[in-house]
Amino acid sequence: MNEPFQGFSKLTRQERYQKLLSTGVLSREEVEYLEHGGLKDLSLGEKFIENVIGYFQLPLGVATHFRIDGKDILIPMAVEETSIVAAASKTAKWIRESGFIQTRVDGHEIIGQIQIAVLHKYDLFSKVILEHKLRLIEMANREVAFGLVKRGGGVTDINVRVLDRPDGLKMGIVHVMVNSCDAMGANVINQVCEFLKEPIESLTGEKVTMCILSNLVTSKITKAEVVLEKVDPELAAKIEEASLFAEIDPYRAATNNKGVLNGIDPILIATGNDWRAVEAGVHAYAARKGAYSSLTRWFREGSRLVGRFEAPLIVGTVGGVTTLHPTAKMAMKILQVESANELSRIIAAVGLVQNLGALKALTTVGIIEGHMKLHIKNLTLGAGAEEKEIPYVQKRLEEILALRKRISLSNAIEVLRELRLQRSSKPDHETHHV
Ligand code: MEV
């Protein structure tokens, strides 16, 4: 299988840039921009938030080996946690060699909510709204969502829910369904709901309390599936057990889902998407059956191991930070996505793959090995080792890790202290080669 990014992790940073250039993923200007530390111009920051004093920078990496729905995709990930990018790439390689990833989005609409805190005539409320639904939709599309209508979207439906309040009264909720095309849709849906407030009040005689989108978008669910052929039966059984653990125990589900989000959030951040909105939606969805549960499920099908992910992953490819932030624009270019749905499907796939990587590690060598080996370098630097001391300290830490299965910053400090002591007490030719 021809893969242009084979061996990418072994390259130096300069060679990585060369690869991105020679494969046409990025232009020379884009590479220079990254090489010189990315965005510097604070005036852009002023456009996003208030009281700006600088930028907070995260490392941007690319995960390799991903083939999603038959398409090779390089995954930009902005994240600080050691081994996420490596684990994603390694697991994607495994799947590329022995299986496949397929994805889809079910549904089109995001949801806006209009609340009437206390309904005075709750039996009439639903009837009146539903009777005038088509007119309300037509008005909202004409007055507010006309841009979306032109692109094939807009307000598509209006539903009514009546909730029991703890004080025995009834609360009315109007759900406004909007197809937001390639926009994340927050602004337009909030505007549509605000716009509908007045007509709803005059039609029903009830008082609207508030209007806002819902992040629990059960009407647009992104799904990913990984199928692995001929998996070692012992490993497949262990992964199935790990999956069951997360399905039935909320304590494990939270950590399992954190591992899924290790794959999701870095892409959201890299592409300038609202990761808090996605997190809120994903967790609410994980608890939709009344108990917090796993977003993923792994099971055996003959000699195959199958994994599934589903959750609302509402993202945009137009508007907001995605089109304004140069690094986010670059991430979008690296991904080469054609629509918000495609971006959402890729994100779901990476979340599921990241989960598989974690479950494989947890049920075999444990998380420490992969995690801490890569972390040793950070510990070495954190302890204050100088360039010439690094190889020795790293080697000693690897030995300690192999021996004790544990390693920490205090080990690194101790090793460095010993090394410096040895050096100061011995003539130069007798000390370690550092
Ligand atoms: C660590 O960032 C993520 C894991 O805890 C996920 C998991 O337990 O499945 C390894």
Small molecules held by this entry = (R)-mevalonate
Radius of gyration over alpha carbons? Answer: 26 Å
What is the correct CATH architecture of the largest domain?
Alpha-Beta Complex
The largest beta-sheet arranges its strands as: 3-8-10-9
Instruction: Provide the domain count.
Output: 3
* Shape descriptor: globular
How do the helices and strands follow one another from N- to C-terminus?
Answer: HHHEEHEEHHHEEHEEHHHEEHHHHHH
Estimated helix fraction:
40-55%
CATH class of the largest domain: Alpha Beta
Query: Ends: how far apart?
Result: 42 Å
Which structural class is indicated by helix and strand composition?
Answer: alpha+beta
**Percentage of residues in strands:** 15-25%
In short:
The protein has 434 residues and is an alpha+beta fold.
Quick tags:
globular, Alpha-Beta Plaits, 434 residues, 4-stranded antiparallel beta sheet, 3-hydroxy-3-methylglutaryl-coenzyme A Reductase, Chain A, domain 2, 10 strands, Helicase, Ruva Protein, domain 3, alpha+beta, 19% strand, binds (R)-mevalonate
What does it look like?
- This protein has 434 residues and is an alpha+beta fold.
- It has three domains: 61-106 and 225-364, 3-hydroxy-3-methylglutaryl-coenzyme A Reductase, Chain A, domain 2; 109-214, Alpha-Beta Plaits; 368-431, Helicase, Ruva Protein, domain 3 (Orthogonal Bundle).
- 51% of the residues lie in helices and 19% in strands.
- The chain has 17 helices and ten strands.
- It has helices at residues 13-22, 28-35, 42-48, 84-98, 122-131, 133-143, 146-150, 186-204, 233-248, 250-270, 275-286, 320-324, 326-335, 340-363, 367-382, 390-404, 409-425; strands at residues 60-68, 71-78, 99-106, 109-116, 154-164, 170-179, 210-214, 221-228, 296-301, 304-311.
- A four-stranded antiparallel sheet has the order 3-8-10-9. The chain has a four-stranded antiparallel sheet with strand order 5-6-4-7. The chain has a two-stranded antiparallel sheet with strand order 1-2.
- A hairpin with a 5-residue loop joins strand 5 and strand 6.
- Helix 9 packs across helix 14 and helix 16 (390-404) crosses helix 17 (409-425).
- It starts with 12 loop residues before the first helix and ends in a 9-residue tail after the last helix.
- The protein binds (R)-mevalonate.
- (R)-mevalonate binds next to helix 10 and helix 14.
